[in-house]
Design the sequence.
């Protein structure tokens, strides 16, 4: 049986991703001033305007306009062509009260890990697969390689005439569950007006695709579409309004695993949309790394103001070597799912968030949630339950 799986990625100059990068850079700036900052920062980018709004509680003063201008310049846009509007206020006292003192603490729990409540309700998901070294689906890995390389060759000048906006999509043909070949590659790259379609295609194949597909090559029958819409001169915020959190599948698993709907960028780690999703990925990696499954979905549900999750599940999608119930029970023994514990374990007060904003939040060395440093403890817990 043949199956075709597809995933996309976007360049840092894509309007939505530009907004994510600005939001996470503002978060980093706040955390550098105050490691206990509460940030829920949203950004909109449109023609000639960058709008920053949301709730920020920080003991230090952050020059938000300076951060926005720096990111615009780094990405490849002229900051002098944008009017920057900032509308921020402090976190709601009602929300802050529930986060500062969890329901468990209000009920008599005096432990440190029970002191902070979840910053919102909802379900988050983590996923891992042994398909690639990154433990991500192959189409996701390849799509990110294209956009990362596209940004790189533009900044290095290897391809003349490229502009910041761009995106990529990869379709992989599977047979009996195994990746067999690259079926389709799509690259849309913004360019200057006098760059011919022919030259652009040749340059992208030579400087981008051969590099991105070095470990899993495309073949003579692979369909390669470069700027299938034709001309792509007008791009970025001038052509398409950008918003924070509108590339959720690019940020996670390419739509090839569940997503709870909560965005990551611009949110401090008390927001379990982010910290919980990172912990779910951390646990899923441990399960697959320990050879208990070929792939795994971990889901965690929270209530705002409550430290302990209201639900936790492990689903190995029929690939598990031990029952899912055992893997779930072992995970609950080894991994603390309270927000304060997750923040401490994964070092989520560190200013690393701008690095996560582009090319996905998973599969990178910067993320402590990519470590599998508790696999011995986890294997011991599983063994004890099985025996």
Sequence:
């Amino acid at each position: 049986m043949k199956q075709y799986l597809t995933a996309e990625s976007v360049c840092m100059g894509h309007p939505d991703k530009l907004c994510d990068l600005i939001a996470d850079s503002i978060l980093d700036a706040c955390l550098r001033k105050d490691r206990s900052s509460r940030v829920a920062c949203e950004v909109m980018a449109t023609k000639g305007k960058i709008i920053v709004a949301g709730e920020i509680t920080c003991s230090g003063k952050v020059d938000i306009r300076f951060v926005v201008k720096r990111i615009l310049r780094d990405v490849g846009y002229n900051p002098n062509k944008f009017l920057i509007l900032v509308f921020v206020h402090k976190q709601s006292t009602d929300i802050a009260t529930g986060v500062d003192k969890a329901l468990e603490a209000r009920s008599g729990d005096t432990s440190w890990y029970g002191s902070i409540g979840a910053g919102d309700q909802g379900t988050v998901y983590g996923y891992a697969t042994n398909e690639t070294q990154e433990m991500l689906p192959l189409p996701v890995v390849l799509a990110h390689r294209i956009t990362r390389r596209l940004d790189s060759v533009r900044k290095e000048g290897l391809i003349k005439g490229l502009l910041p906006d761009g995106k990529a999509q990869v379709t992989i043909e599977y047979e009996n569950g195994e990746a067999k070949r690259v079926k389709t590659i799509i690259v849309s790259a913004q360019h200057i007006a006098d760059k011919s379609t022919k030259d652009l295609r040749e340059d992208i194949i030579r400087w981008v695709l051969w590099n991105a597909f070095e470990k899993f090559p495309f073949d003579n029958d692979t369909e390669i579409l470069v700027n299938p819409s034709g001309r792509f001169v007008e791009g970025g915020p001038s052509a398409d309004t950008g918003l924070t959190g509108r590339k959720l599948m690019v940020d996670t698993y390419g739509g090839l695993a569940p997503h709870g709907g909560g965005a990551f960028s611009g949110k401090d780690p008390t927001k379990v949309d982010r910290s919980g999703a990172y912990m779910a990925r951390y646990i899923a990696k441990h399960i697959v790394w320990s050879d208990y499954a070929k792939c795994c979905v971990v889901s965690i549900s929270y209530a705002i103001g409550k430290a302990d999750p209201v639900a936790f599940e492990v689903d190995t999608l029929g690939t598990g070597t031990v029952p899912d119930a055992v893997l779930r029970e072992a995970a609950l023994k080894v991994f603390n799912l309270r927000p304060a514990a997750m923040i401490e374990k994964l070092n989520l007060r560190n200013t690393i968030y701008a690095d996560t904003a582009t090319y996905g939040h998973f599969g990178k060395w910067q993320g402590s949630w990519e470590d599998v440093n508790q696999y011995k403890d986890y294997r011991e817990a599983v063994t004890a339950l099985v025996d």
